[in-house]
């Protein structure tokens, strides 16, 4: 008989139980990376939004901590503030005096208060909560809200220190106007409006979770651009996804750079696509990364609002992406976003299995009959004369997930990946345009039970998708159809489960 499917990822973050969505308050402080997240403490579906909390010393192994910021009820007894998405910063030396006197460093969470009275939403504004004990407990600021424009669609404050002008900058969105709104403050309490950006790019969905950061240009020492990430629509209508804008920020205004990537045909965005899969959303950057980093690190929610509430997972719902190192690369079509898993992900690798170059002519070859669907895979694929060539993952007798090259595109086809019936929008073929380099495409694929994260050509394109295999075989098979394809540098590393 069939055993109960084991969908829980082994090296991607998931909560012990119940629902999660966006990562919140990503900040490094005193040896700890904090991961706060949108969380329903009571149920395995969206609701009662609060900030859950975990910490890590390496961004890979997480320790779960008690709920950090719970939804709260006002004095009238029927008004409630839900703790929507936001960010966290460290006020070193407690200079602004939010925390009690004598506090060394004050952690300040800047979040959206989603206010409702008798279960009817009345307002959405920006609030502060502060912690004098490294994010373990928070106190609500008694002069909240800090920014209230009388809107019900004004959210997701992304705050960072803007060193050139010694001030805090906040990016927010006016969700239905498809505009980012920027504010500045010297003390985190009083905020002044700076400017708007948008509407532009994708306006098919509300704008959410802005993230503004300075990103280095690969191979051009000292060169960087400001990149604005917006969670909005997806190249395929009916889904949400992320777009990015390459530009400049002068402390007041964000403007598009002439080298912002040109739209790709078939994709009408002015905004460029961050992840071509269905399951990467609401990503934000870490504040205060230690040491000299090659660039920002971002984490995203590995899910899609199109079906998120229906996922067939118990007793939890939702996962986070691997932390991604962000850079820009100059290409013929402009400055392109490059995303790579942080380098230390390699430390999770078990002993490698290799295969010398394999040529397939209109045939399939089983590489692994059985894996536990917890591994990293690398290969270089030369499609050659094949019409379609690639790899079948999580393969059982009746199920498979295809990662394949066809006609200038790298596809993840999860239509037969297992349980696809839980929501009619789940089964899908996702694709990213890919230019072959010397006739080849390089793939680095992370499989983690119900997650497939595909990094193409050193992170120039990424496809992230969930799958829910019901068979346990976890096979891997290579194939070429309609001609000859070559696979080289095939390497598989089992990944050691990260202890929780
Ligand atoms: C994005 C989002 C945010 C909001 C939060 C609520 O996924 O809709 O805009 O703050 O989730 O949970």
Automatic annotation (TrEMBL):
Residues 12-341 form the Glycosyl hydrolase family 32 N-terminal domain. Residues 347-494 form the Glycosyl hydrolase family 32 C-terminal domain. The keyword Hydrolase applies. Gene3D superfamilies: Exo-inulinase, domain 1, Glycosyl hydrolase domain, family 43. GO terms for biological process: sucrose catabolic process. GO terms for cellular component: cytoplasm. Keywords: Glycosidase, Hydrolase. SMART domains: Glyco_32. One of its GO terms (molecular function) is sucrose alpha-glucosidase activity. PANTHER family: EXOINULINASE INUD (AFU_ORTHOLOGUE AFUA_5G00480) (PTHR42800:SF1). Belongs to the glycosyl hydrolase 32 family. This is Levanase. It comes from Spirosoma montaniterrae.
């Amino acid at each position: 008989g069939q055993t109960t499917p084991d969908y829980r990822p082994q090296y991607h973050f998931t909560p012990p139980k119940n629902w999660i969505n966006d990562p919140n308050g990503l900040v490094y402080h005193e040896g700890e990376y904090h991961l706060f997240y949108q969380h329903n403490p009571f149920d395995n579906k969206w609701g009662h939004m609060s900030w859950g909390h975990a910490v890590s010393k390496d961004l890979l192994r997480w320790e779960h901590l008690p709920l950090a910021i719970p939804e709260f009820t006002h004095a009238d007894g029927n008004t409630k503030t839900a703790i929507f998405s936001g960010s966290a910063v460290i006020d070193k030396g407690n200079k602004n005096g939010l925390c009690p006197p004598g506090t060394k460093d004050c952690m300040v969470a800047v979040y959206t208060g989603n206010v409702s009275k008798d279960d009817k939403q009345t307002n959405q504004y920006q609030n502060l909560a502060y912690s004098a004990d490294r994010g373990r407990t928070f106190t609500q600021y008694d002069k909240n809200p800090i920014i209230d424009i009388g809107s019900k669609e004004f959210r997701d404050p992304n705050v960072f220190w803007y060193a050139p002008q010694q001030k805090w900058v906040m990016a927010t969105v006016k969700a239905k106007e498809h505009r980012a709104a920027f504010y500045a403050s010297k003390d985190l309490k009083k905020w002044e409006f700076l400017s708007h950006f948008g509407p532009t790019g994708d306006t098919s969905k509300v704008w959410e979770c802005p993230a503004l950061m300075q990103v280095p240009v690969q191979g051009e020492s000292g060169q960087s651009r400001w990149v604005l990430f917006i969670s909005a629509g997806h190249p395929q209508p009916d889904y949400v996804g992320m777009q990015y804008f390459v530009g400049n920020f002068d402390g007041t205004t964000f403007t598009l750079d002439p080298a912002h990537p040109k739209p790709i045909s078939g994709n009408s965005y002015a905004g460029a696509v961050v992840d071509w899969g269905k399951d990467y959303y609401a990503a934000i950057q870490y504040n205060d990364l230690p040491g000299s980093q090659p660039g920002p690190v971002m984490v995203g929610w590995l899910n899609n609002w199109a079906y998120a509430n229906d996922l067939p997972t118990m007793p939890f719902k939702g996962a986070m992406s691997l932390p991604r190192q962000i850079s820009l690369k100059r290409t013929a079509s402009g400055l392109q976003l490059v995303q790579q898993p942080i380098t230390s992900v390699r430390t999770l690798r078990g002993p490698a299995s290799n295969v010398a170059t394999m040529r397939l002519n209109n045939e399939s070859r089983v590489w692994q009959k059985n894996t536990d669907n917890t591994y990293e895979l690398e290969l270089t694929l030369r499609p050659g004369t094949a019409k379609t060539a690639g790899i079948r993952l999580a393969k059982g007798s009746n199920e498979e997930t295809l990662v394949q090259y066809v006609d200038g595109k790298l596809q993840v086809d999860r239509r037969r990946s297992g349980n696809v019936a839980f929501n009619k929008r789940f089964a899908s073929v996702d694709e990213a345009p890919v230019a072959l380099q010397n006739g080849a495409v390089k793939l680095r694929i992370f499989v983690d039970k119900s997650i497939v994260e595909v990094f193409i050509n050193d992170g120039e394109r990424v496809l992230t998708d969930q799958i829910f295999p019901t068979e346990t075989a976890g096979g891997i098979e290579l194939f070429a159809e309609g001609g000859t394809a070559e696979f080289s540098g095939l390497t598989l590393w089992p990944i050691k489960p990260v202890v929780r």
